[in-house]
Amino acid sequence: MRVVVVGGGVIGLSIAWRAATRGLAVTVVDPEPGRGASGVAAGMLAPVTEVHYGEEELLALNLESARRYPRFVADLEEASGIRTGYRASGTVAVARDADDLAALDELVDYQRGLGLDVERLRSRELRRLEPGLAPGVRGGAVVAGDHQVDPRRLVAALLIACRRAGVTLRGERAAGIRRRSVILSGGQAVDGDAVVMAAGAWSSGLEGLPAELAALVRPVKGQIVRLRGAGTPAISRNVRGAEVYLVPRSEEEVVVGATVEERGFDVEVTAGAVHELLRAAIELVPDVTELGLVETAAGLRPGTPDNAPLLGTTAWDDLVLATGHYRNGILLAPVTADAVAELLATGVAPTEIVAFSPRRFERVLT
Ligand code: GLY
Questions:
Q1: Which atom of ligand 1 is nearest to 257's Cα?
Q2: Taking the model in full, what pTM does it have?
Q3: Which CATH superfamily is domain 2-82+150-217+305-365 in?
């Protein structure tokens, strides 16, 4: 069984690695693996903190992937010899003012109603847990199961694991798609028994892709800043505010994210976005002001009409979609990789991804 994966981000590489270890002959097509959204993402693994009202099916998938993360990174670290930066740090959700607190209380009620592990804390308790938080914060909640990973390390580890598992990497851009074939920008065709579309926000751009499929994925811009300094982090858990999140890494770095902007394929970093992210971060964690600003970046999330990924076969039964992960691409890598490798190897979609079939959108049924 020969598989061609379009896209060498965390999703495409995870699928390639898991499929290759099941004995499939896999080729990944990407001119710059890991340089898309995976290279910008903060790596917060936050199914509970980022739950949205009415998205319970997506929550179940997110929780399942979070559950698989420790095993996934242990396997990957063994296969590659690279540490992924996975940290079971936990997360605090923080309310800065009375409005934030009212919204947070409502969200905590919803989360607890779903049986999720969330503990509401008063301001003093919160600051005892995280002394780096501003004295004025009004209260919050601790989510013990929302963690983090370093997406750049994850990509580095996946590239090595893929090579060791026999995956072929073609460093060219995929320009077109046909039944059982991907056309490279130079015109050459890479044939397979199946093609996996895992090109994130760029999934819709391939010539020859049925228009009704292409219409399902759109780019959603996210800007982030990376800060560094001696003594960082001033916080030990991820911090989630109403307008911003902070992800403290072990190696003296804090990632602050992220805007959510509908601007097509624009990846310009704007002064206003950086200003707003830093202002909101400093309001929550004042010591952030002392850190060096080492990087600003913008990435494109692959959005879908219902914010959930597209996982499974299409009307072209040899074309498998593994895209549209929107805000959860890093989080959903383990479950996506396991499920898509299973689908490719057996022809049967495992139950956890059935609800996320692209065929849920009526227009791709035929
Ligand atoms: N999950 C974080 C983000 O998309 O910004």
A1: 5
A2: 0.96
A3: FAD/NAD(P)-binding domain (3.50.50.60)
